[in-house]
Amino acid sequence: MLAEAGATVELAFPDRRAFPDVGSSNAAAHLRKLYAQEIVLSPDLRLQEVYQEDNRLVAVLANEYSRRLEERVVDLVVSEQGTTPVDDLFHRLKVASRNHGEIDHRALLTGRTADDCPQPGRRLHAVPPRGLPGKSEHPCGDLRRAAPLQGHLTRLAAAGRDRTQLALENTSWYI
Question: Which InterPro entries does the annotation name (predicted)?
Fold first, then answer.
């Protein structure tokens, strides 16, 4: 929206590529739109701090690999810190679950979600949002889908008139 209004936009993100949790087909569509709007992509950068200098803000970005700091003088910083998980239900249920909410990592690596429920009792699972390889649900039907815990989206208005920068910080998925 900012770029469509004529602002200069930079998308900075700590990963090697933008949209790491989006499939390649969908990511390509998003990238085409970004490049069509002449948005600058800056990988490997994470927002470290923002401080005020006169009537402007300075956004400090750190390179994920070299730790070298870069500063951007900006007019505005808008930061989305994602969502806070409502995990009280998980913690209440895990006490009574057979597996105490723990993932069977061997099953996970082989593409299975868990055993075939030979023992009575509910199993409680937390899985990544993409699901597990090979299966998306537990054979007993009691898998819980993960929800985004945090996705940091930070918008930085860049120095100069009608210039804006956008920084996308790390996105983590948990339950």
Answer: FAD/NAD-bd_sf
pLDDT per position as a tens digit, 103-124: 777 766 666 655 545 555 555 5
Residue with tokens 């996308």: 168
The number of domains in the chain is 1
Token reading at 98: 């057979």
How crowded is residue 42: how many other Cβ atoms within 10 Å of its Cβ? 18
144 in Cβ contact with 175 (< 8 Å): yes
Confidence band (pLDDT; 50, 70, 90) for 138? Answer: very low
CA–CA distance from 54 to each of 58, 75, 76, 85, 86 (Å)? 10, 11, 13, 37, 40
Q: Is residue 43 part of a domain?
A: yes
State which residues form the domain around 26: 10-82+148-174
* pTM (predicted TM-score): 0.46
Q: Residue 88 to residues 13, 34, 91, 113, 141: CA-CA distances in angstroms?
A: 31, 39, 5, 23, 21
